[in-house]
Predict the structure.
Amino acid sequence: MEIRPPRADRQAKGARGMGWSHFPHDADIGIKGVGRSPAEAFEQAALALTAAVTEAAVESKAEVAVRCQASDLELLFVEWLNAVIYEMAVRKMLFGQFQVRIEGKRLEGLLRGEPVEVVRHAPACEPKGATYTALKVEKDRDGLWSAACVVDV
Amino acid sequence: MDPDRFTHVDEMTWRIEPKGAMRVPAIIYADEALIRDMDDKVHEQATNVATLPGIVRASYAMPDAHWGYGFPIGGVAAFDPDHGGVVSAGGVGFDISCGVRTMVTGVAADKIPPLQKALADSFFRQIPAGLGSTGAIELDTDEMTAMLSGGAQWAFERGWGEARDLERIEENGRMAGADPACVSERARERQRREMGTLGSGNHYFELQAVAEIFDEAVAGVFGLKLGEVVITIHCGSRGLGHQIGTDFLKEMVVAAAETGIDIPDRELACAPINSDIGQRYLGAMRAAVNCALANRQILGHHARRVFNHFFPSADISLLFDVSHNTCKVEEHPVDGKSRSLFVHRKGATRAFGPGHPSLPAALRTAGQPVLIGGSMGTGSYILVGETSSEAKAFSSACHGAGRSLSRHAALKRWSGRKVVDELAEQGILIRSPSMRGVAEEAPGAYKDVSSVVMAAERAGLARRVARLRPLICIKG
């Protein structure tokens, strides 16, 4: 399956507001994911991270498993994004599909993607790390979960 | 920001009086127009920094300040370890020792136009830039450790650059106190294939012409002549620094809670300087400084090689290499006594005035070069540190123009291709793997660098020496 982040509005919203979006920060970029569970919100936020880098299609040619843990859900969200950023950096890959499972303070994630092709992906930036700025993981009144923070690029 | 939220001390000094948990005041140096344009977050973040234990004199923000992480970008704060002072991973940031180096070529800018396209293409081919790029260098475990200890000196010993470069780099090219054992395996892995790469975001490689001289005497000391070409490189410690920032931010959030340090923002995560984690962070952070110094030394070598291919007789000498994301131990007079302080500069440049003992002999009478990156359309400045900056902000000045629009907003407003075409009409060639990246870095997304450096000058932080006009810009 290919994930094609849309170009113009810097967001992709599904049914009932689920999806991902970017929000502004003076120097860098805010990313937000919304889903029916924290795991889905984390998956959507990771799509927002990829969309901060490229507007091109990212094919699922290889799979990488990550694990992380933290003392609360917000810190776990930062750990998750930093795990994705680390794999992007050391493997020189982009990921277009994410599966997250959260049990208590532990997270297991599966990333699917392909090596960066500079001409085709035309990466606009290189994420350095997820920050605690504008960090929020919360459930709204409709029962939807959102996960957001600023990423230093 | 509303100027009425400050005590207006003088034309360029805006003070937030201590209240609540603030231990010291917060002081922003800027003119009224810059203050009005600043995000309210600068007020909030400068105030938060003023609450940290052991802070000395004040929490400062430079004229280019904008919303950062914990600290404002453009923030300066000094801490005394003997008074419970802290070191903050957030206060240094992810791009440890990000900085600027400028090299003087002695070549007249009017020789560039016939070769400009070929030069731009050669630089773009030779300088790995952007996500997915790798350098030709791969470090094994021993070489990584040697690099983390040796900085630009290590790079010179391996054949990158010249011996005379070293005294023109802060710390003579090698930050003392680095402890490679404090650098995680993940940080090392992120750096293994990244030496000699430019990175992305606001990092750049530029060929520039000296377009205006403000101080002939100091320009002469700096080797800057009107109409001559200089090369400027802006980048940092690459993946290694990013990972060290990530590793210690996480650890310090937990440690701050355990040691009872009440931080108003998790991004301000910090630890007492005199603590195990504080010392481990300093050891790792200094190793990242060495990584950045080595990286810019290697990039400087590539720049020389390419430029000398086109101009074989050009003698390319390093003017200076400054870092603007650091925590350094420095001696500063406080209440008439010299104290050893841990000075955090997050998006702020050290700016020692004339006579400072750490400056190389050739520059000592003039003062420290302060290298200010503008945008790819509007140009950059070279300033010189002022003696008055010591009392103003522990000898610090601005580091760039500072953004006025977010990447998000810039992307809505500009097309990268159009920006490239318009700059080409002005004689500025842009090379980048990403047109979207160019749009995000469009000149209009930045504050007017001229008003920022003018504010720094009028505030007594640093004085203008020369303005640089871009000719070629490589963006990651």
